[in-house]
Amino acid sequence: MEPIIAIRGLRKNYGQKQVLKGIDLDVYPGQIIGYIGPNGAGKSTTVKILIGLLSDFEGEVSMLGQDLRKDTLTVKSLVGYVPENAEIYEVLTPVEYLSFVGKLYGMDDALIEERANRMLQAFGLLENKDQRMDTFSKGMRQKVLITSGLLHDPQIVVLDEPLSGLDANAVIIVKEILSLLKKEGKTIFYCSHMMDVVEKVSDRIVLINEGSIVADGTFEQLKQAEADTLEKIFANLTGSQSLTNVADAFIHKNQP
Ligand SMILES: Nc1ncnc2c1ncn2[C@@H]1O[C@H](COP(=O)(O)OP(=O)(O)OP(=O)(O)O)[C@@H](O)[C@H]1O
């Protein structure tokens, strides 16, 4: 099977700082990849490259067989992106915002309305659909962002910490949405710090540390190689010192 996302020798620098140090990764159609790593590991940088927001990288990235550098527009039309936070146009209502997003993807009005209503209803936001979003809570805005990322029925869905601000019920809905998308054959690239969710929804976990992949496999494979929970696996492979000692040093003055 051909990979739907193929990343070869991906490097990215910000000034002198090398943030991605040669990432090689093949993602196959229908996989849910949990892309995890400590703060500053390079997850969002990878995501920004995949969705075509950053183009000054070294290496090769192809999505759906298209070279990202040569055909950014096609790739963008087939990929859905759900960010953690976005500059959402707060003076708009969800209906206005989603209609704007849908039109950018070339969708017709009837399809936008049908899909937007269905998704907003699932999130319990239908009664707020004509309300300006500057009156919304963080979680309500996040639900609109998730809806806008999935509105055009993309083949690949890239999510960067999408559960930020969501209540427990919405988290359950999003987890369910991810497994339904998988059943439809969509490919999901999911970045998160919520280890319990990653453990449950991902069928492959890729752990990145300081710009390099340090583990790649199913949760079962990582468990056999490292430890019995994803939290422990994460700590084993990325913690430079005992995390308990770090907490202790944070709270207590060093004893002479
Ligand atoms: N625009 C930028 N200019 C300079 N440095 C940047 C920029 N964006 C990110 N970096 C640096 O690149 C490194 C990787 O950042 P990135 O946002 O990809 O990490 P991350 O794994 O997503 O982290 P987090 O879990 O905290 O979101 C960090 O050291 C960060 O300071």
What does this structure look like?
By secondary structure, the chain is α/β, with parallel strands linked by helices. It has a single domain (5-251), classed as 3-Layer(aba) Sandwich (Rossmann fold), CATH 3.40.50. It is built from ten helices and ten strands. The chain has a six-stranded mixed β-sheet, sandwiched between helices. α3 crosses α4 (109-122). The model has no long low-confidence stretch (mean pLDDT 88). The structure holds adenosine-5'-triphosphate. Adenosine-5'-triphosphate binds at residues 14, 19, 37, 39-45. It holds the Pfam family ABC_tran.
Summed up, what is this model?
By secondary structure, this protein is α/β, with parallel strands linked by helices. It has helices at residues 43-50, 72-78, 94-104, 109-122, 138-150, 168-183, 195-201, 219-225, 230-238, 243-251; strands at 5-14, 17-27, 32-36, 58-63, 66-67, 79-82, 156-160, 187-191, 204-209, 212-217.
Q: Major sheet, described briefly?
A: 6 strands, mixed
**Text of the CATH class:** Alpha Beta
Order of helices and strands: EEEHEEHEHHHEHEHEEHHH
Distance between the termini: 61 Å
In spatial order, strands of the major sheet run: 6-7-8-3-9-10
> Helix count?
10
Rg: 19 Å
Count of distinct strands: 10
**Residue-averaged pLDDT, rounded?**
88
In this entry the ligands are: adenosine-5'-triphosphate
Q: By helix and strand content, what is the structural category?
A: alpha/beta
The backbone outline, from C-alpha atoms, is globular
Helix content: 25-40%
Q: Quickly count the domains.
A: 1
CATH topology: Rossmann fold
CATH superfamily membership, which one? P-loop containing nucleotide triphosphate hydrolases
Query: Beta fraction of the residues?
Result: 15-25%
Protein name: ABC transporter ATP-binding protein
Keywords: ATP-binding, Nucleotide-binding
Pfam families: ABC_tran
Domain ABC transporter: 5-235
